[in-house]
Amino acid sequence: MLHALSDPMRLQIVRELAAVGDELSCSHFDLPVTKSTTTHHFRVLRESGVIQQVYRGTAKMNGLRKDDLDGLFPGLLDALLDAATRQAARLGGA
Amino acid sequence: MLHALSDPMRLQIVRELAAVGDELSCSHFDLPVTKSTTTHHFRVLRESGVIQQVYRGTAKMNGLRKDDLDGLFPGLLDALLDAATRQAARLGGA
């Protein structure tokens, strides 16, 4: 899981999912990488247990497994998201 | 910092430093990797700001920058260490 969240793109995906608090389709995310790289990041997140992916109609929806993660590693996800927010603010980003 | 802590060997180094709560020499750590790999891990930890390295006599001592990390990312280090402990217990390790 730490490996999964150590990549800036993957951390950004997780931050967006956490901020929305709902499932988002892959196409929702506008990352500055190729589509195949985006697909790779989603697979890493799914295989590490950070997100779940389900098909709804023709869309593949991504949901953060917050409850599962909080159960396994209490406080970790919130601390990571908080750290990412502080880091982004420090760098002048969003 | 997340990248630095996403490697199992580096996380183990940080866990030992946190458990001891004091500086440790590089030679204290008995990691199942080559000496040059160990040196690499210590460099990554230092360059990412997780540890500081100082020479005391002829020994290079490593110290966890806990206060700095806690200031930058409140709760993150403790949550990571707790997660690592739970993970290790789950895997039947130490």
UniProtKB/TrEMBL annotation, chains A, B:
UniProt cross-references to SMART domains, sorted A to Z: HTH_ARSR
Record domain HTH arsR-type: where: 1-84
Spans traversing the lipid bilayer: none
PROSITE patterns assigned to the protein according to its UniProt record, in alphabetical order: HTH_ARSR_2
Gene3D superfamilies: Winged helix-like DNA-binding domain superfamily/Winged helix DNA-binding domain
Protein name: HTH arsR-type domain-containing protein
